[in-house]
Design a protein that fits this description.
With 585 residues, the protein is of the alpha/beta class. The protein is 64% helix and 10% strand. The protein has 22 helices and twelve strands.
Length: 585
């Protein structure tokens, strides 16, 4: 029942189009129910014009049969025409909602789901729901009425025939209950496994270079075959259940038909019924066979849709854990002026899926316009620390403040306008160079884009691209080198001259000379921006106003590059690792 509730939760959308949807159901019912009249007409023909050999009385019932056929066809045509528009609108609305929700869920939540699961929910499950609401749902609502109407007509025609139909319905109902429980389990397993398959396809497409370079095609193929075999096993079990259900829904109407023929023939001989009534009864059972047989298919389709709906609501019900202070997320909060003091006050942080603390007792103050370089061994928590500033994650304890205000008190979108970020792994979207850079400051003019590209030392290579700023990059466009992509991502971070700049090793893939030129440009042009930069090379840390050394989640030293070279062994060790490069310079 809880499962069915997930389908009923679409009620507010359905209610808005209720008059249209009721028309769809009424047309479905009409198309199916009207054919129940044909057997009664058949009986009349046998007992009337045929028995009385009066052919002139034949044309009326035959015209009626023809009319019934026309009504049936028109109703089915109308149902489809109306359903297509309404239901495809629901599909895109629900898909848009799930997409929208995904944009607002935190990185922690995204991390806890496989991307393929989200993909299959947004695509396959929504398609399943569209098909169900267009076809399955109107039929599943109208079919029981058609069957009950048929049984009533049969009973009116001949009570003994009605009793036969009712007796057949009992095992049918029992079968449905058993089938329903088992099919639900298999359906969930099947749709979840589709999610895993999506993840594997996505991973292998994204990682195709690694797979090829390491000659690991057989390994990924094997992995894919294993999960496909798992899906196959589930689908086979589903098909077995389907087969039993279908065999049942096909056998029972035939049993009913045999019983009606037997009881009817006896009735004709005993004189309590007529040949026409028996023919009408048999024909009616034959007509009723179609909706009864459809029940099996409708039921499995409904269960898959219930599962799809449950998977949809799981995403939609996931709470936003990183929000504005009032629990919502304001898309357009007002902008205020900040001077840009960034302060970490006894910050501790652990990733959501572990009990371990990645950062402990971190206290730092970065003054407006100051550049603080953060250094530390790999895995020491630098990226974690940087992620806390735009609230990709929230601190576990302590606080981060901007101009004295806890960042959790600032509207999320105001904070993210205030803080610009560039990551080591630069992500470009399938769009032009200009649009990729403008993501950092929507509405920025061409001059601002060029200025940002100049700061990131990307202007020269962008000018050399086939269509300059309008060159398509990202997955569907031109391939850029790692260093080029990093510089575009940096341009995206610096456009609009943000008050606070968080740069997570933004130039790890560019040469030392370019890195130094970018660093100088950042200092000159963005002298008012407070900058936190994760760095590995002495060339970067030497240019920073101050350096903080992170060791196993704690700040162990702060000072200028020269001071730390003198006083911090950890710092010397870290820089020593880069010394050969500096010597080469
Ligand atoms: N999503 C996550 N869940 C749990 N632990 C994580 C997660 N991401 C990172 N970690 C762990 O947190 C620790 C700090 O990671 P972080 O990425 O901050 O290190 P880093 O100093 O930036 O390293 P690097 O210089 O290699 O980029 C590491 O031990 C890492 O394995």
């Amino acid at each position: 029942m809880t499962a069915v509730r997930s389908l009923l939760r679409f009620w507010p959308d359905i209610r808005r189009k209720l008059h249209v949807y009721l028309t769809i159901i009424a047309l479905t019912f009409a198309a199916n129910a009207i054919s129940l009249l044909v057997p009664a007409l058949m009986g009349r023909i046998v007992d009337g014009p045929i028995a009385e050999q009066d052919l002139s009385a034949l044309w009326l019932p035959i015209a009626a049969v023809l009319g019934i056929g026309v009504v049936e066809a028109v109703a089915l045509w109308g149902r489809r025409m109306i359903a297509a528009k309404v239901v495809s609108q629901w599909e895109i609305t629900w898909r848009a909602r799930i997409y929208d929700r995904l944009q607002y869920l935190s990185i922690g939540v995204h991390g806890s789901w496989e991307s393929g699961q989200l993909l299959s929910r947004a695509i396959n499950d929504m398609t399943q729901l569209r098909r169900f609401f267009a076809f399955g749902a109107p039929f599943i609502v109208s079919t029981p009425f058609v069957i009950v109407t048929g049984i009533i007509v049969l009973t009116v025609m001949e009570p003994a025939f009605g009793l036969i139909a009712v007796l057949m319905a009992i095992p049918m109902l029992a079968g449905v209950i058993v089938f329903n429980a088992r099919y639900q389990r298999e359906s969930r397993a099947s749709q979840d496994t589709m999610g895993v398959i999506s993840t594997q396809v996505e991973e292998s497409v994204q990682g195709i270079r690694v797979i090829k370079a390491f000659g690991r095609a057989p390994w990924v193929t094997e992995r894919f075959e294993a999960i496909s075999a798992h899906l196959r096993a589930i689908e086979v079990r589903k098909a077995y259940l389907d087969s039993w259900m279908w065999a049942g829904t096909m056998t029972l109407p035939r049993l009913a038909m045999a019983a009606v023929i037997a009881v009817g023939s006896w009735g004709v001989l005993a004189g309590w019924t007529t040949v026409g009534t028996v023919i009408a009864g048999v024909t009616l059972v034959m007509v009723l066979r179609i909706p009864v047989e459809m029940l099996g298919f409708l039921l499995s389709d409904a269960i898959m849709s219930v599962t799809a709906a449950a998977r949809y609501w799981e995403v939609m019900d996931t709470a936003f854990d990183i929000t504005d202070a009032d629990g919502g997320i304001d898309d357009a909060p007002p902008s205020r002026a900040f001077t840009g003091v960034l302060e970490f006050d006894d910050v501790a942080f652990g990733f959501p899926d572990t009990d371990l603390l990645t950062l402990r007792g971190v206290s730092l103050r970065v003054a407006p316009g100051e550049t603080l370089a953060l250094v530390g061994a790999t895995g020491s928590g630098k990226t974690a620390l940087a992620s806390l500033v735009p609230r990709l994650y929230d601190v576990s304890s302590g606080a981060i403040r901007i101009d004295g205000t806890d960042i959790r008190e600032l509207p999320l979108n105001e904070l993210r306008r205030l803080v610009s970020v560039s990551f080591e792994e630069p992500i470009l979207f399938s769009a032009t160079v200009a649009d990729n850079v403008r993501m950092g400051s929507p509405g920025a003019g061409e001059a601002e884009v060029w200025e940002a590209l100049e700061i990131a030392r990307a202007a020269d290579f962008v000018r050399a691209l086939p269509a300059g700023l309008d060159t398509e990059v990202g997955e569907q466009g031109l391939s850029l080198s790692g260093g080029q992509r990093q510089r575009l991502a940096l341009a995206r971070a610096v456009i609009g001259r943000p008050r606070l700049l968080v740069l997570d090793d933004p130039l790890s893939a560019v040469d030392v000379d370019t890195e130094e030129r970018v660093q100088r440009a950042l200092r000159e042009v963005l002298h008012a921006s407070t900058t936190l930069i994760i760095a590995h090379r002495p060339s970067t840390t030497a240019l920073a106003d101050r350096v903080a050394v992170l060791d196993d989640g704690r700040i162990v030293a702060t000072g200028t590059h020269e001071e730390l070279l003198r006083t911090s062994r950890t710092y010397r060790d870290l820089m020593g690792a880069s010394a050969p490069e500096e010597v080469r310079r």
